[in-house]
Specification:
The structure is a homodimer. By secondary structure, the first copy, chain A, is an alpha+beta fold. Helix content of chain A is about 20%, strand content about 35%. A seven-stranded antiparallel beta sheet of chain A has the order 3-2-4-1-12-9-13, with helices on one face. In chain A, strands 5-6-7-8-14-15 form a six-stranded antiparallel beta sheet, covered by helices on one side. In chain A, strands 10-11 form a two-stranded antiparallel ribbon. In chain A, strand 2 and strand 3 form a beta hairpin. The two termini of chain A are about 25 Å apart. At the A-B interface, strand 3, helix 2 and strand 5 of A face strand 3, helix 2 and strand 5 of B.
């Protein structure tokens, strides 16, 4: 299994604290030795770092932990390989362009039979079932909406439906973004937390690190973090229920669908 | 104007030496203050670093200079903005997937009228004429070859022809790669050099740095570097002629077309 980490915020925020916790699970406190990746959105652009090496020993991960890249949307993933070798092209998050937007996707779970589904426009570069699932979802969106539809209320339900369908094939917890929304789906395990005023202190589970968010934030900041497992030990994380689809905009839950 | 840097090698090679020279031109010895980017291919995957800040003062550029990422194909670009703001989404190299391969593209010059050409499959994320040109070229390739053709001798001429056509719109020096070939086209200025045994010493023009390649290489290594301006002062760089298209594989010129 792999672990996911996502952030949606109403102001550019660095993810150093949460990322530090996640990276420990990549070979030290957790078994996810088969690479890690992170995407930071900045305007319409996306900045991605990928490494097929264990995150706990990665010089690039150390750089990303130390250098506070501020972003309103972040997706990250640490991998324990199931399908596909340990290589750069199999390292999540995957990225593709649709509607002139940079889409990113990271998956936790296994849905090997998705590879039997034919693809039309998007073709995987690597061998994972995850990238195949991403290509299939974007194919669906593109077939339904060749150009960007007027409202997210048109395209988000298509993603929600695709997620429910993919979850029938196995374990499918995922994060996806188009640079505006952070979209999440839970088939087995996922948690979220929104931090806003009054801000408190939080301590990582996986490393000796405590942050007092009151010192790091402004009054109206709102930052939502999504993770496979709660990253802190003294905060109240919300568990997703099975089949829950949740799209965040600027840290707010904007669109929620729960299972069939 | 911008500057281009490319590498094609027959063995994984780091580009720290050449990249150090190029980065100096990003705000110190040159005027290219509007961002920089680099793509390293690793297997079928591509590792990209982009920064809309001047390369001479970029902490990320310092990290990339210091950490020897070994690759057989590298594309890099430093930007002096003409069309499109200084932002991440306008920072070359641009990337798209075609035929399950990760394509990258960087452009030096201006061809504003390319934006009048309609696009079909690929849509720019930013505002540059360069990204529009890239999308247009990939559209052409995709229309001609919906799936990867058997031989590069089928698709490389399509790229060569597209380059000649784009060069009629203005200045169009470019580097493109599919992860196998490093493809180059010169409409006004571009140089290349192949380093192979017997290896010699080389000194950068833009920084106090000398490398003796004899100490860094093995007997059968072959490394071709392409750049807008020669990066070293004591080597013989080959100038491209106007309209020259040159595709390298493993450091060798495999496919060459010159002017009309």
């Amino acid at each position: 299994m792999c672990e996911l980490l996502g952030m949606s915020a109403n102001t550019p925020t660095d993810i150093c604290f949460s990322f530090t916790g996640l990276m420990e699970r990549g070979g030290r406190t957790g078994p996810h030795r088969d690479g890690w990746g992170i995407v930071f959105y900045e305007g319409a652009g996306a900045r991605a770092f990928h490494d097929p090496n264990p995150s706990a020993q990665s010089p690039l991960a150390n750089w990303v932990k130390a250098y506070p890249i501020k972003s309103q949307i972040v997706l990250s993933h640490i991998r324990q390989a199931n399908v596909g070798s340990t290589s750069l092209e199999n390292t999540h998050p995957f990225q593709r362009e649709l509607w002139g937007r940079s889409f990113s996707f990271a998956h936790n779970g296994q849905i090997p039979d998705v590879k039997k589904r034919p693809l039309n426009f998007y073709t995987p570069i690597g061998q994972t079932d995850s990238e195949h699932a991403f290509c299939w979802m974007l194919d669906r969106l593109r077939q339904k909406f060749p150009v960007l539809p007027e409202s997210h209320e048109q395209w988000l339900p298509v993603v929600a439906l695709a997620c429910s369908e993919l979850a029938k094939l196995g374990v499918f917890n995922m994060l996806l973004s188009d640079g505006n929304f952070l979209v999440s789906f839970c088939s087995s395990k996922l948690y979220w937390i929104t931090r806003q005023a009054p801000f408190n202190q939080a301590s990582l589970k996986d490393a000796q690190l405590t942050v007092n968010f009151a010192n790091e934030t402004a009054l109206h900041d709102k930052v939502t973090i999504i993770a496979t497992e709660p990253l802190t030990q003294n905060e109240q994380w919300q568990p997703y229920i099975k089949g829950e689809f949740r799209a965040f905009l600027n840290g707010d839950s904007l669109f929620v669908r729960t299972g069939d």
